[in-house]
Amino acid sequence: MRRWTTLAPVLSVLLLAGTWGRKDLPGVVVAVVAVVLAGAVLAAVHHAEVVAHRVGEPYGSLVLAVAVTVIEVGLIVTLMVSGGDGTETLARDTVFAAVMITCNGIVGLSLLIGAFRRGTASFNAEGTGGALATLTVLATLSLVLPTFTTGASGSEFTTAQLAFAAVASIVLYGLFVLTQTVRHRDYFLPVGDEDGDGVEDEHAAPPSNRAALTSLGLLMVALVGVVGLAKVESPSIEKAVDAAGFPQAVVGVVIALLVLLPETIAAANAARRDRVQISLNLGLGSAMASIGLTIPAIAVASIWLDGPLVLGLGATQLALLVLTVVVSALTIVPGRATRLQGEVHLVLFAAFVFLAVNP
């Protein structure tokens, strides 16, 4: 396992270096990229779990969420700099897709798995509720208000408004991280886990500092490979989307799904071990990191980017976001959920994917 999880990240980066910037890749190469991409995803999950076991919760969940988001931001900025059709809405579509995937896909799957064995999935409503409140404000400031402000034409911010949204996003995300890791760390630990080590983890000694640092480095390498190979695969995905007659926004959804695969698998594994709180930390934390880091980065990049920057959501997207917030609040308030709540979130996720294909 160690050899395989070490080889996959390195191989993904080497393959990325050999295919980056090339167009019209042969079908065999596209297939090889897909296989290596899947291997890099599984390796990223393994190394993230090693780091999480060493540093304990909720730091472990934070490591994967921030690492994926930082590389995702780099991918968005790179694509926007390259220009092309649809780049003016790329940041909005990517962030919104990340919110829908994490809040409905990851959360719904985690609740379903967690409630399957015991009938109900238990978690800390205090910490999860605070995460949802922060996420709601972040999404509203960055994705909802541009639709209704009048300072700029269309669903855009003025320069001053964009600067305010960027600063507010960084401040809110920083306050949440401080609360999660320092002031109220116990609110984000699995129910009954006072020290953050986990019941199952007590039977295995934590990895050494050297092993944890090695896994952290390989995690970063694997995430670079995942995001980069997802971009390499995007032309093939675009061709398939065009051939099927789907909207161009579907490409962003598919790439977001690929990028978020490590977090999805890690969240499912945690739920399978009856640690649903970790799954929720990953889901909601990734959504917050996606907005809290992406919007400031895009605001800085907009200084030299040409063309408009559309951040405001459309009517259908607004309806899905409002429905997601309401359903999530009703799910979180009791501090426990049945399979029904998980299935409701998964239906919402399916509605998002369906409406992205058939707007």
Automatic annotation (TrEMBL):
Transmembrane segments: 31-50, 62-83, 95-116, 128-148, 160-178, 211-230, 250-270, 282-305, 311-333, 340-357
Membrane topology, record value: Multi-pass membrane protein
Family annotation (Pfam families): Na_Ca_ex
Keywords of this entry: Membrane, Transmembrane, Transmembrane helix
Domain of life, source organism: Bacteria
Residues forming coiled coils: none
Keyword set includes 4Fe-4S: no
InterPro entries, per database record: Alkaline_pH_Ca-Antiporter, NaCa_Exmemb
Protein name: Calcium:proton antiporter
Organism: Spongisporangium articulatum
